[in-house]
Automatic annotation (TrEMBL):
Keyword Iron assigned: no
InterPro entries: DUF420, EF_Hand_1_Ca_BS
UniProt protein name: Membrane protein
Segments passing through the bilayer: 5-27, 39-62, 74-94, 123-147, 167-186
Presence of the UniProt keyword NADP in the record: no
Keyword list, A-Z: Membrane, Transmembrane, Transmembrane helix
Length: 188
């Protein structure tokens, strides 16, 4: 198998994940929800926080030329990110988006609710939108960087990681921020 095969596979996986996430926004949720579903946002927030720390450790390891620790840390971070994605899809299959500022959980923001969150709503949306846009972009970057790293194409790996690493770290950190900002408005 060669790079072309894996690159095609990477783009197929990226397209499938994007299609699933878009479908979750369109399809109505099932009426019966498993009881564990309400734990998922907290687990997702914890996974993002853990990935943020692991990504920083990965950078420290590679700067110290500890390639084995760098590889292991990145594999663990990748596995956690895959678990995050499964939990995210599972949660959004059963729960639609929570509205920032919806204190009474009725799905409608009253004037009083809007006034209560005022300018933080715009900050939240800026963080959320950049998080979502970069999350879409980062998946193929991560997969390509893994392909090049594991196939020992070190120079090509470094070139893609210059882009993949800061985007992945931004997505992980902003995932934690989005969780912390939206969690008071969950309806559970």
């Amino acid at each position: 198998m060669n790079d072309k095969f894996f690159l095609r596979l990477i783009w197929i996986v990226t397209a499938v994940v994007l299609a699933v996430v878009i479908t979750l926004k369109i399809v109505p949720p099932p009426t019966v929800k498993p009881s564990f579903i309400y734990l998922l946002p907290h687990l997702i927030g914890g996974i993002n926080a853990t990935c943020s720390v692991l990504l920083i450790l990965s950078l420290i390891f590679i700067k110290k030329k500890n390639i084995q620790a760098h590889k292991v840390t990145n594999v663990v971070t990748f596995i956690l990110s895959a678990i995050f994605l499964v939990f995210y899809i599972l949660f959004h299959l059963y729960e639609k988006d929570t509205k920032y500022g919806d204190i009474d959980h009725n799905g409608i923001l009253s004037a009083a609710e809007l006034a209560a969150v005022s300018g933080t709503r715009m900050i939240y949306f800026f963080i959320l939108i950049t998080h979502i846009m970069l999350a879409i972009i980062v998946l193929p970057l991560i997969l390509i960087s893994f392909l090049r790293g594991f196939s020992m194409q070190i120079e090509r790996h470094r070139k893609i990681v210059r882009w993949a690493y800061p985007v992945w770290l931004y997505v992980a950190v902003t995932g934690v921020i989005v969780y912390l900002m939206i969690s008071p408005y969950y309806n559970f």
